[in-house]
């Protein structure tokens, strides 16, 4: 069974998720506080971490920050409705996706499957696709990225976002178009989540993220990946 780690101090919710997700092929391990959860995620990395923001001890944001220092394990962040600031910070720290509490269990299952699908290359799915945009290489087979021949560590969401832009290099894509290419149609996501992930990508692929040469913003229209002059 696919191992998931749920870091949440709501024992009733955790018990419900353990039972529900077990019926869909997932083994759920749990931790009730941030320090225990972080230690478990680093000691034996699961396939995905479900991380609540409101935790005793280390809060979810700090757990995510420390986890991202040494791990690219996918993270699904749980937030309370209306916590826009925390949601943005969580995405900036490297969470792959978020879900607001209270949530529908089927929605949680859909989010988990989508994240795992992005994190695992499907057999035969664009296995040989290798996109070159100037000095930037995006390899779908290995889900890897390199810049000037040097590897770039990305989360699964960052990789899918960059691949969508690379597949349409030179074209301007709106937030809605990017979300559809990454997740499929009718995907509900925080309106500014694309902006946050774009910002994180620029930190990793731009020489000067404040003056991007590769990943351009087209005001009022969207984003565009170009060859740039940094090569």
Protein architecture, described:
The protein is α/β, with parallel strands linked by helices and 231 residues long. It has two domains: 2-119, Response regulator (Rossmann fold, 3-Layer(aba) Sandwich), CATH 3.40.50; 130-225, Arc Repressor Mutant, subunit A (Orthogonal Bundle), CATH 1.10.10.10. The chain is built from eight helices and twelve strands. The strands form three sheets. A five-stranded parallel beta sheet has the order 2-1-3-4-5, sandwiched between helices. It is elongated. 35% of the residues are buried. The mean pLDDT is 87.
Draw up the topology in text.
Blueprint: E1 2-7, H1 11-22, E2 26-31, H2 34-43, E3 48-52, H3 60-68, E4 75-80, H4 84-92, E5 97-101, H5 105-119, E6 130-133, E7 136-139, E8 144-147, E9 150-152, H6 156-167, E10 172-173, H7 175-183, H8 193-205, E11 215-218, E12 222-225
Parallel strand pairs: 1-2, 1-3, 3-4, 4-5
Antiparallel strand pairs: 6-7, 7-8, 8-9, 10-12, 11-12
Helix pairs in contact: 2-3, 6-7, 6-8
């Amino acid at each position: 069974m696919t191992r998931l780690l749920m870091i949440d101090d709501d024992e009733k919710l955790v018990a419900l998720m353990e039972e529900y997700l077990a019926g869909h092929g997932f083994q759920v391990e749990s931790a009730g506080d941030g320090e225990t959860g972080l230690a478990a995620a680093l000691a034996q990395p699961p396939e995905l971490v479900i991380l609540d923001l409101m935790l005793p001890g280390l809060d979810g944001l700090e757990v995510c920050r420390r986890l991202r220092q040494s791990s690219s394990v996918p993270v699904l962040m749980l937030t309370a409705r209306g916590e826009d600031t925390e949601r943005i910070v969580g995405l900036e720290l490297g969470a792959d996706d978020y879900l607001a509490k209270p949530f529908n269990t089927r929605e949680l299952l859909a989010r988990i499957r989508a994240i795992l699908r992005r994190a695992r290359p499907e057999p035969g799915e664009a296995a040989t696709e290798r996109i070159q945009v100037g000095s930037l290489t995006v390899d779908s087979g290995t889900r890897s990225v390199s810049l000037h021949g040097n590897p770039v560590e990305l989360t699964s969401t960052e990789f899918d976002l960059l691949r969508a832009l690379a597949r349409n290099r030179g074209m301007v894509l709106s937030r809605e178009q990017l979300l559809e290419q990454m997740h499929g149609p009718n995907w509900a996501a925080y309106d500014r989540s694309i902006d946050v992930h774009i910002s994180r990508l620029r930190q990793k692929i731009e020489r000067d993220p404040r003056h991007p040469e590769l990943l351009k913003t087209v005001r009022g229209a969207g984003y565009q990946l170009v060859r740039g002059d940094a090569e």
